[in-house]
Amino acid sequence: MFADRAKIYIRAGKGGDGHVSFRRELFVPNGGPDGGNGGKGGDVIFEVDEGLNTLTDFRHKRKYCAVDGQQGGKKKCHGADGQDIIIKVPAGTVIKDEKTGKVITDMSNGNNSEIILKGGKGGLGNMNFATPTMQAPKYAQPGQPSKELEVTLELKVIADVGLVGFPNVGKSTLLSRVTNAKPKIANYHFTTLNPNLGVVDLTEGKGFVIADIPGLIEGASQGIGLGHEFLRHIERTKVIIHMVDAASTEGRDPIEDIYTINQELSNYNEQIAMRPQVIAANKIDVIYSEDEDPVQKLRDEFEPKGIKVFAISAVSGKGLKELLFYVNELLEGLDPEPIIFEKEFFEEEIRLADEPYTIEIDEDGIYVVEGPKIDKMLGYTNLESEKGFAFFQRFLKDNGILDELEKAGIEEGDTVRMYGLEFDYYK
Hints:
Its EC number is 3.6.5.-. By secondary structure, this protein is of the alpha/beta class. It contains nine helices and 19 strands. The chain folds into three domains: 5-155 and 342-349, GTP1/OBG domain (Spo0b-associated Gtp-binding Protein, Chain: A), CATH 2.70.210; 161-332, 3-Layer(aba) Sandwich (Rossmann fold), CATH 3.40.50; 355-424, 2-Layer Sandwich (GMP Synthetase, Chain A, domain 3). The strands form four sheets. Strands 1, 3, 5, 6, 8 and 15 form a six-stranded mixed β-sheet that branches. Strands 10-11-9-12-13-14 form a six-stranded mixed β-sheet, sandwiched between helices. Strands 16-17-18-19 form a four-stranded mixed β-sheet. The longest helix is centred in the middle third of the chain and has 15 residues, at 254-268. It starts with a strand and ends with a strand.
């Protein structure tokens, strides 16, 4: 089964914590602070791999984490930076935030490598906080927390022309005849389970890329019969060729088929249904009706609407040249820029993968704030110094703890307790 959609969890590395230490050497009784800085956390990077054409690998591994930065050391030693993680995807992969559905990036049109999550910065060691009035700071800066996301990967094939139609109308046969593609061909529903790409070469260097989109059925836009798996591949195409069985060898009405597919395209994405269309009336070599011409009926129905109809035989090749040159003319009249999915999701929307904390009100009305996040911060902060207390206040504000206290109903003068620390709350 062709895999064109996957959901994975990605996490950048946390910044290493700054270190608290003091120089201790013989004959240097009052050595100054020498705690080093923490290393930067690793980034999460997506890269295009031209050798890939599916997202199958992501069915087996769904969690990708970069390495955390190392903590700073004594003697002003800098912690090692965390190693980046590089995730390989096929060209045409659109990365979206799983929660909102917003586009983070489109790995196509030369966008071969992009940092999706940046690792946290390393914290400063206590050597950075020494001043003439504070020569022995006993606190260091924690590293920045890591960032995490659940993302959806969607592969949308990169083609100028999308070839659509019901199963068994001859799309794969057409593709194999006009391009160098070698799709498997057989006579049963959903013959093609993955989009086939081929390059149509015309005279004087002209040509285009065409995608045989697997056969659609009524209800495809609601996901019936793998509909969603197929329809997303039409989103980049600029021109749509509707292929129908003009001979009605399976008893279907070709006019009704076109209206049905157009309705499915519109239900899925109205913009797709508005793109230029051409009708390829296939299997004219097996039309035996003497009463009426089914191709003319198609022309009478659709050419007044601006949709040109070509009578073709994918088996014998009749009519294919006229069809392909007309499609090429349509493309030449359109914007040559490829269809790219614009970025909708920005870095400031990325949530932090941070340690939790809780806010509760005890029986004495004291607001108790606890959790690994708070415990860790207090371990690095010297609240007896003015600078250390200022750092503590910034920490409460920057991490949203003050906002959460206000949501819990705290008022000026109320008491806050964090493990062994108690203080009165004032804005």
